[in-house]
Design goal:
13% of the residues lie in helices and 40% in strands. The chain has 202 residues and is mostly beta strands. A hairpin with a 3-residue loop joins strand 1 and strand 2.
């Protein structure tokens, strides 16, 4: 879906957050993080789910998708109609070796605000699995989140502007990065606005 962009009139902005509770199977996913496991558990609570499920798709922070293509199509059609808070990444560039500088701006929310997040993700990545149920397979990934950070708070009726500096891993290829900024209600709530860009070099 990230590649095909199947929703007319909208851009699907994808984030892959790799949980870490499969790392005990004799192989550790180098992209996994306890932070993403905690976020998934937050969605279990917020959406009144019985248990966490992997792979899991959460759309706009308020609905879980595990169903048929028809269910997915209907969910996306509903999500497209929901109003969004305008948010943009004014700039995203390599400021120094292994350092990324990002500026996020958003218009004031009419009803209520939320937390502003910045995600730094690998455009494409691969994992060579050495154990577990996928042992011997090479898995291809898109939009793999390497850094997810709270950068501020959008208050009701007030614009937001914030610059953030992110340290990158030394071997990171800037051409393989995408930056996503989104506004989300607290406690894994509804996503109020989102945008994404590729990184530009100075």
């Amino acid at each position: 879906m990230d590649e095909s962009q199947p929703v007319n009139g909208a851009q699907l902005i994808v984030l892959s957050e790799h949980v870490d509770y499969w790392d005990h199977d004799g192989w550790k996913d180098k992209y996994s993080s306890s932070q993403f496991t905690e976020r998934q558990n937050g969605y279990v609570h917020a959406l009144n789910l019985q248990t966490a499920y992997t792979p899991q798709m959460i759309v706009d922070g308020y609905v879980e998708l595990k169903g048929s293509p028809t269910d997915i199509e209907q969910t996306f059609a509903k999500a497209v109609k929901a109003p969004k808070v305008p948010v943009r990444i004014a700039s995203a560039a390599i400021d120094a070796p292994s350092q990324l500088k990002v500026k996020v701006e958003a218009e004031g929310a009419e009803k209520h605000g939320g937390t502003v997040w910045v995600a730094v993700a690998l455009d494409h990545a691969a994992s060579q699995v050495s154990a577990g149920e996928n042992s011997g397979r090479q898995l291809q990934h898109v939009a793999v989140v390497e850094e997810l950070r709270k950068v501020g708070k959008l208050d009701k009726g007030k614009p937001f502007s914030q610059e953030v500096v992110v340290k990158l891993k030394p071997d990171t290829d800037p051409k393989n990065l995408r930056i996503i900024a989104f506004i989300q209600e607290s406690n894994e709530g509804k996503v109020l606005g989102v945008t994404g860009v590729k990184v530009s070099n100075p």
